[in-house]
Structure formats: structure tokens, C-alpha cells
Amino acid sequence: MRRGREVTLRDVAELAGVSSRTVSNVVNGYANVTERTRLRVQQAVDQLGYRPNVLARNLARGRSGQIAVVVPYLDTPYFSELLQGIIRAARVQGYNVLIDQTDGDREHERMLINHGSSRLLFDGVIFSPLGLSQEALADRDPALPLVILGERVSDGTFDHVGIDDIAASRQATEHLLDLGRTRLAAIGDQPYETGEAAQLRTRGFREAHERRGLPVREDLVIGTPRFNRVDGAGAMAHLLDRDDPPDAVFCYSDLVALGAIHTLVGRGLRVPEDVAVIGYDDIEDGRYSNPPVTTISPDKEMIATTAVERLLLRIGSPTPPPGLELRAPHRLIVRESTAGRASSMIT
Amino acid sequence: MRRGREVTLRDVAELAGVSSRTVSNVVNGYANVTERTRLRVQQAVDQLGYRPNVLARNLARGRSGQIAVVVPYLDTPYFSELLQGIIRAARVQGYNVLIDQTDGDREHERMLINHGSSRLLFDGVIFSPLGLSQEALADRDPALPLVILGERVSDGTFDHVGIDDIAASRQATEHLLDLGRTRLAAIGDQPYETGEAAQLRTRGFREAHERRGLPVREDLVIGTPRFNRVDGAGAMAHLLDRDDPPDAVFCYSDLVALGAIHTLVGRGLRVPEDVAVIGYDDIEDGRYSNPPVTTISPDKEMIATTAVERLLLRIGSPTPPPGLELRAPHRLIVRESTAGRASSMIT
DNA sequence: TTGAAAGCGCTAACAC
DNA sequence: GTGTTAGCGCTTTCAA
């Protein structure tokens, strides 16, 4: 991609009659430069239309000026909404964002985090792991600045940004209970190693029951491999085939909720009259579905900016700062899927 | 980001007892290297755990190994679905993908395409313009390899990948007409400079009417600023307030259709009995909505791979290849929003 | 087939 | 403050 000959730092230096060192200083706003020379250099820069070569700069600096964001699925609305915020926040700081999708592939996730093949392509990574175990996380390249999104717990070597999933899930469940529902189902449990996110929600679900002194209907806690529409639709169908179907469902994502509602309506049941449905994530889809979905809304903007902020801090630090647990706020947004028509409101 | 000392090409050369040139040849699979030296070098590489420094390589080669993909909105399902395909296709070719979101901002789009500030950050760009005029496109940095997605027409200096929007829209409209509907509305027209995408759809809508010798109900052709749910919901409400509301609606995106359906159901109307609704894009949401949305399905995988393929070809060519018009296939997928329950099928 | 060496364009010690 | 200069790690021309 050499188009013609690019204007280099040296060209500018020559024209301005100074050394390249000085030009570099001016361009980067470094050090002390006399106002007069600064001006002369600036003039030369403008005249020549000089633009620094990012590649060369990065090579010399030993950094790439890019951060990677790794998510399991790009087309999951929750992630794409989050990504927007991250890109914005990073750009403000002069960083570019490389986006990667793992499809939840364990091997791919491990590779990324070991920083192997793409060494120096990014200076740090914001990671939303899916298939990655806590151990794999632990024996990663320790020099790679890392911020984890979602439900992992920090081991002190990275930052973790998320909401309080247990509290949020408890709150969602209590909302259902407050409606007078008695047969609550939960869709989305993942009772295995990599299902920590799901397990926290299940725990909140249980805690809500405990607080009310109510038993959890264990047979109504349904597992799903992913948190998407298909899974939600399937699980709901499964639930409806029981003798004693639920009158309310806590779905571990809005997509799951959308899938569940799809099945309910398809079977001629009314939401929320026959079955109340609550979701999680507050994605845009849920606001315009029929009926609109009651949900737990994490503060995505806050999650995005916090993650970027912490990562850049990590990248900039010669000695790694301690790994923090950072909690973004969330709130319950009540819509028609639990409250019925005309009673939409925000709590 | 200097962590310890990295293994360099020279280290390998030293250990293998050859020059760095030879190591480079082996690593890149270049030129003729004796099987014996190749083996010796490979051994040294493995032993030292050498990994090439991408930054240095790119600087020397004068390219970045990255392509940029620019879309108006990341959280639009159509784009995020497309992006997945692009990322995959690029990775296969050893390219990384930089994603940028313009929010449809004209200035931002122009800046990107002029390649100014980010020179050498990416070697080419796949661009889905929104606010950019044909002229702005024309006076861009001519050296920047470019592939345009969507509805622009190539002026011969870039490639354009898309589906035949007129034909697709005509087909969608004819489907509605075939259902025996007589009062067809269209939601999504954008009768101004940057609304070329929308205008093609409107044209297809008209052509379908013409072919049947039917008049277009001009008052039922509604404009919307964007192609999203809110717009669809609003436009639909507007239509229903007419004296003579439509009995079928052609929506210029699935999101618009989802919004329209939301309004319809909210007003107690049945889809498709009272009003049939057809969308465009075939996003996943439309498959699990209530009712599932009949739609025009562009071959996204094909669009993605074609775009990447053409762009890399452009990047690799010393002399720019002629700008091509590339048409990906599309098909009509009939679901309940037009065909009614139980009559889902694919055409 | 392989080696020596000159860049790629910028940064940053080190010296003045 | 500013200049000199040695890299950053790799590619690649030119010779051998």
C-alpha cells in the first residue's frame, strides 16, 4: 500500500529547519518547545500535509493503540448494544477497537487470552468469556491487561465489571411473587462449570423464594445451552407440557423471554394473564415486542465506560493495579409482560 | 508494553546459524529454502517459541493487515449478522477487522473515507454509507481500496455488493397483491438525496403495482428517518388513523415491520387477518416474533464473503481493478405475518 | 540458496 | 530546548 511517497517526519524537520526529534515533540505535544519553533514546525506540518504513520509510531512505542473486545456472539443484541458504548469510550481516548467473536469456542477463547498469535496487535482486552473456565483464565499471559465482563469473579489479576446478578435475579423473582404468582419457572440454568452466569441467576431465584418462605419448584427450573430465542421457545414448550404448568417465568435473558412468549402466544395463552414473563438485559427488542417485556436493565453505558477506563489504566501502568470488582447499577423495568396492558411503569 | 524481552527473528537466526533473511523466508513460506535449513530454522523457531511481531512486519511491508468495516449502526441486527460473516471471511485471509460505527454522521463518514487521520491503520474499507452523498464518495482518497455495501451504484472506482433491491421489493409487493390485498401501504420511503436505498424499494413497490395495472395509493407511502422499530410503530399508528387504512404493509426492514406489528396488535388488530405485514432483511428477530415476519432474505453470507474477497483483491492489486456491480441472491420467505398461522413455508 | 545491510517512520536515551 | 542517533523487528534489494 505505498501510494506515492508519504510525507515523513524527516521531511517536516528539513523544511522547518529543525531535527526530527523536535518535530516529534511538537506533534506529540511533548516536552518543552519554544513557541517560535513550535509554530515553525506546525507550519511545515500543515504545508506538507504531514500525518504521522501510526504503524511506525506503534512499533517504536512498543504498543498498538488498539484494544480488543471479545464477545461470544456479535449478533446478540446485548453485546452489540454494549459494544457501541465501548467503541465510543475507547475512541475518546485515542484507542481503536478490534472486535472478535468466539462463538463460545473454548479453544479460541484460550488462544486469545494467551495473546499468542496476535501479540502486539492489541494492548489489552475486554473479554466476555463463555466457555472459558476459571483455571484457563488464571494461567493466561499475565502481562496482558484484562477486563472481564459478565459473571466471573476476579482473582485479583484482572478487573471485573458487571452488575449484582444475584440481587437482580432476586428482584426479578420477587416481582413475580408480588404479582401473586405461585408456580414460578426459571429458564436458563446451566449447572456446569462454565455456566456461572446462569447459576448466579438461579441463586437469586432461590433466595427470593427463601425470603418469602416459599419452596422452589425444582421441576420448573429448566436448563438451556444458550440464552437465545430458540432455547426460550423450546424450554417454554417443555414447561407447558407438564401437568402443572407455571403461571410465571423468570427468563435469564430477554431473548429467552421473547422465545418463551412466542411459544405461549402460539399455544393460545395470554401474557401476562395466563403466564407472566420477565426477562433480563433490557435489549431494544424487548421494548417493542408483543407484549413488551418486563426486564432487569443493567446500566450498559456505565459498564462500557468503566471497562474501557480500567483497561486503559491497566495498559498505562508499569505495575499492574490490583484487580477490582466493579458493580454497575441495574433496575427493574416493568412492562406489559408481567403488569398487563396499560400498567407499564418504571420502578 | 514491553514485557520482558521478546524473541526476535535475529535470535532465531543466531540459534539456527543462518541469517535473518533465511528465517524470514522460512517463516513466510517464501522462496526456495533447502529442506535441511528449513528444518533447522523451524526447530529454532519452536525451541525459542518465536512469534513474528505483526507491527514490525506491517511497517516493513507498508500495510496494516487490517480492514475496516464501517456501518451506520452496530446494534442493527442486519449489520451485526453481516459483520459476523465478514469477520470470519477476513480472518481466513489473515486479516483483522476494525469496526466502526458512524451513527449515520455525514462528517464522520467522509472523514473515514478520506483515510486521513487513520492512514495505514487499515488497508481498505468495507463501507455501508448512510449519510454520504454520491459526490462525497467520488472525491474520496482514490488510493483507498473500497467496497460499498447497500444500494449505491458503483462509479467504476469501487466495488458494490448488494442484492437487486428493486426486484426484491417488487416481489414483496406482488406477494401482498397475490394475497388479494388491495390497499397496500409502504413504510420507509426516504425521498431525499441520501435515501437511495429506500427509493429503490419504493420503486419496486410501484413497479409491482404497474405490472398489475393497479394504482399506487400515494397517501399510504410513508417516509421514516430510519429503518427501526420506533419508526415502524409510529408510521403504522399514523396509517391507522386514516379514514381508509391499509390491509397490507410493505416495510422496508424487518425492524420496521416489527414496530408496525407492535402497533397493530396494540390496537387490537390481527396480523395478517386485518393487516398483512411483510419485512426486509430476514433478521433473527423476525423469525421468533408474534407472528413471525414474512420477509425478503438477502444472502448475507454471500454478501460478506464477496465483499471481503473483492476488497482483498483490490488491496493486492498494484493497479486498481475496475469497479464491479455484484449482486447477491435473495429470496422471499413467507411466514405467518402474511400467510396466517400454519401456512408457513419458504418460496 | 543464502548473507549482508539498508530501510520502513517514528520514539526516546543521551548529550549539548 | 534541541540535535544526534540508536533502535523497534521485520522485509527485501543486491551480491555472492
Structure notes:
The structure is a homodimer of 347-residue chains. With 347 residues, the first copy, chain A, is an alpha/beta fold. Chain A folds into three domains: 9-52, lambda repressor-like DNA-binding domains (434 Repressor (Amino-terminal Domain)), CATH 1.10.260; 66-163 and 300-316, Response regulator (Rossmann fold); 165-298 and 332-346, 3-Layer(aba) Sandwich (Rossmann fold), CATH 3.40.50.2300. The first copy, chain A, is built from 14 helices and 13 strands. In chain A, the strands form two sheets. Chain A has a seven-stranded mixed sheet with strand order 7-6-8-9-10-12-13, sandwiched between helices. In chain A, strand 3, helix 7 and strand 4 (146-149) form a beta-alpha-beta unit. In chain A, helix 1 (9-16) packs across helix 2 (20-28) and helix 10 (229-240) crosses helix 11 (254-266). Chain A is elongated and about 85 Å long. The N and C termini of chain A lie far apart (56 Å). The structure holds a DNA duplex (16 and 16 nucleotides). Chains A, B: Residues 7-61 form the HTH lacI-type domain. Chains A, B: Keywords: DNA-binding, Transcription, Transcription regulation. Chains A, B: GO terms for molecular function: DNA binding. Chains A, B: Pfam families: LacI, Peripla_BP_3.
